[in-house]
């Protein structure tokens, strides 16, 4: 029987727990595809799962990672619309086909096995056939988690319009993907970072309009207000969580949207927890949690990425 290489977390808390196995290559059932994984992208979530700081349940011996781009290696006999060789991606949650993501029980690389293996069988209706483009498999894989999250953030609730403004926290994957798509949408962009070198890079290479170093400007919301002439921004990409949300709300325009995506600065003592309800009320803003993105949202992001040539990026 033909075998493949599969990685599994046999023990988490140390990278030594990531072990390589030889396992059989499965076959596609009638309504399934066998996908050959060509590229896997790493997210902060994968690091958090490895070091046990991820706040949601994880399956024992899980195959890590949720983002992959691959090609169809076998098509089930009742599947229509796919051929061997088609390039495909999958949304993070295989149960979230459209509309709001309604839970995390089907998230790849968490409660179910993920993408760090050579082959995987998937229900055909969960796969997205990628549009023709010059993107590499690496570029498509890098778009999956950040791209679906960004599309949910910008287009599922209060669609980002040309001329609006967006604040992006840090120069990680979510933030830079959102920057690239916000620029493509005609928005004015402001990005923060702990590093002047990274800010220089983002300005020179990704065309961000304004930069703020959040270490040298710990009161970075005041900088946002100064840059926007006291108006605040229409959208905030909130990556820090409890440690940054107060300043995010102080940065947003009256009636704007703070999209709560990350928990990079969530380690805040109980007595220092911000009163988010009161801060939001004072600003008349929307504080909206983001649970990745559905298959439909990722599909729309891939179409946009192919037609505009935008690609996900990391510094
Ligand atoms: N809700 C969802 O659906 C969803 C989806 C994807 C990711 N996430 C979460 O979103 C967060 C970002 O993910 P990622 O993949 O972009 O992570 P990443 O690529 O590892 O981003 C790390 C960067 O974040 C920045 N950062 C860290 N602490 C910060 C702070 N206090 N203020 C501002 N920036 C800070 C730093 O930028 P500088 O080096 O420039 O300072 C750091 O380099 C993570 O918490 C992740 O779990 C959530």
Write the layout of secondary structure elements.
Elements: E1 3-9, E2 18-24, E3 32-41, H1 44-50, E4 67-75, E5 87-90, E6 119-123, E7 127-129, H2 137-155, E8 165-169, H3 173-184, E9 188-193, H4 196-206, E10 210-213, H5 220-227, E11 233-238, H6 245-251, E12 252-260, H7 276-283, E13 286-289, H8 295-308
Parallel strand pairs: 8-9, 8-11, 9-10, 11-12, 12-13
Antiparallel strand pairs: 1-2, 3-4, 3-6, 4-5, 5-7
Helix pairs in contact: 2-3, 2-8, 5-6, 6-7
This protein binds NADP nicotinamide-adenine-dinucleotide phosphate.
Radius of gyration (CA) equals 20 Å
According to CATH, the fold-level topology of the largest domain is Quinone Oxidoreductase, Chain A, domain 1
The hetero compounds bound to this protein are:
NADP nicotinamide-adenine-dinucleotide phosphate
Largest beta-sheet characterization: 6 strands, parallel
Class from helix and strand fractions: alpha/beta
How far apart the termini lie comes to: 42 Å
Task: Describe the overall structure.
This protein has a six-stranded parallel beta sheet, with helices on both faces. The model has no long low-confidence stretch (mean pLDDT 95). The chain folds into two domains: 143 residues, Quinone Oxidoreductase, Chain A, domain 1; 133 residues, NAD(P)-binding Rossmann-like Domain (Rossmann fold, 3-Layer(aba) Sandwich). The protein contains eight helices and 13 strands. The protein is globular and about 65 Å long. It binds NADP nicotinamide-adenine-dinucleotide phosphate.
